[in-house]
Amino acid sequence: MLRYVQELEKTGAHLQHLLIAAIKLKPSILDSILSQWSVDNEVELSSLLKCTLITRKRDVKMKETGEKWRGLLDYSVLNLGMCHQNDEVRITSLALIAESRKSTATFTGWELKYIVTYLRYNINTQLPSTRQQIMSLMKKILIRFDAGYDTILRNYSKVPDGTKAEYFEQKTQYEEFIVNLRDCIFESLFPGANFSRRVICLETLTLLKPILLKLFSVENNLWTRTEAEAILLCLGDSYESNKKLAASLLAQCAPELMKLSTIEDTERFIQDALALAASVKPADTVTAAYMLETAGYSPVLRDTLLKLRPAKETRTPEYHMIVTVLQQLQAEVEIGKENLLRAAAMAPMHGTLFCLRHLMDKYLFKSPNNQKSSYWKPLVSEIITTCFEVCAIVGPI
C-alpha cells in the first residue's frame, strides 16, 4: 500500500483513509510509515501528517529524541508544512501542535516559537474556510496555553528553591511567547492591511486579551500608544465585525492614548462621530456607532456631553449620550419635514437611527439597572415618537 502511495498520486489520495484507519487500530505502525515515506510528494506529506495527528490525538507515547519533535517527526517536516502551498497540509501542521488529550499539557520552547512563526506566514490567508480553521486552532492553543501556564506557576511555587530552574525556564518561555505573539500581531495590523490580516489580528487579540490581563495585571492600560492607534484605525474598517472587535479591545486602553482624557478631546471625538452619523455612506454610519461606544470609555464623558447639550438634570453618562444622539435625529427630522431632498443630502437620518439603536442596545436593553430607572421611560417614549415621525416623512417615498 505504501508503494502505491509513492507511485500514484491519485491512488494515494484514496489510500489515505485506509492508512488512517490502520493507525487507529494499531498506532505502533507509525514507525514503519515514518521510516519509508519522504515529504517530496504532496499527497504523501498530507497522509504522513494526518497519520501523525491520529497518533497524537490518541496520546501514543513514542521514544523522544532531540532529533525529532515529540519522537514522531523531523522538525524539518513541520517547518515544511507551515508554509506549504496546500492549505490542508498547513492546517494539519498547526493541528499537530495544538492537539493534546490533556488540556494542561505544556508546550515546548520550540513549539511556542513555531506558533508565532506559523502565524506570521499564514496571517494573510485568503480562503475564509482556512482562516476559520486557523482561528479555531489558535483558540485551542491559547486555552491550553492558559491552563498550562497556571500549572507551571503552581508547580513553581510548590517545589524547593533548588529545583525551580526547570519551571522558571518554562515560565520564561511562556512569557516570551506572549510578547512575541503580540508583536507579531501588531506588525501585521498596519494601515492598509487587507481584510484577512485585520480579522486574524483582531480575533487573536480578542483571544489573547484575558491572558494579557492575567500576566500583566492591568485593567485600563493594556495597550501602548502605537498599539492603541492601530486598534483605533480599525474602527474605520469596512466590516462591522472588525469594528466590534476593535471597540471591545479599546475597553482596556488608557483614555489618554485614545485622546479621551480631557473634555476638549472627548468633545472633538464625539463631534467627529456625530458628523459621520449624518453621512450618506452606510460604512461611515456604522463607524460612528462604534466611535460613540468608544467615547463611553472617557472618564469625562458626562461633563463633555453636558457641555454639548446642557441639561436641567444630571443623569448617567449613557443617558446623556443617547439624549445627544436623539437631539441630532430630531434636528434631522425637522430638516426632512421642510425639504426631503435637502435631508437626503445633508441629514439622511438612517445613520443617526443606527447609532441610536446601537447605543440603546448596549446601554439600555443589556443593562437591567438602567431598565429599572424611572427616568429612562420618558426618554424611550420620546424616541418612539421621533421614530414614528421619521416613518411619516420617508414612508410615502
What is this structure, in a nutshell?
This protein has 20 helices and 2 strands. It has 397 residues and is mostly helical.
Task: Describe the protein.
With 397 residues, the protein is mainly alpha-helical. Helices cover 71% and strands 1% of the residues. It has 20 helices and 2 strands. The protein has a two-stranded antiparallel ribbon with strand order 1-2. Helix 13 packs across helix 15 and helix 14 packs parallel to helix 18. The longest helix has 31 residues, at 128-158. The protein is elongated. The N and C termini lie far apart (71 Å).
Question: What keyword list fits this structure?
Answer:
397 residues, mainly alpha, two-stranded antiparallel ribbon, 20 helices, 71% helix, elongated
Let me know the number of strands. Answer: 2
Rg measurement, Å: 28 Å
Major beta sheet summary: 2 strands, antiparallel
* Topology pattern, helix = H, strand = E: HHHHEEHHHHHHHHHHHHHHHH
The 3D shape can be described as elongated
Neighbour order of strands in the largest sheet: 1-2
Helix tally equals 20
Question: How far apart lie the N and C ends?
Answer: 71 Å
Low-pLDDT runs = 3-12
Strand content: under 5%
Helix content: over 70%
Mean pLDDT: 87
Judged by helices, strands and strand pairing, the structural class is mainly alpha
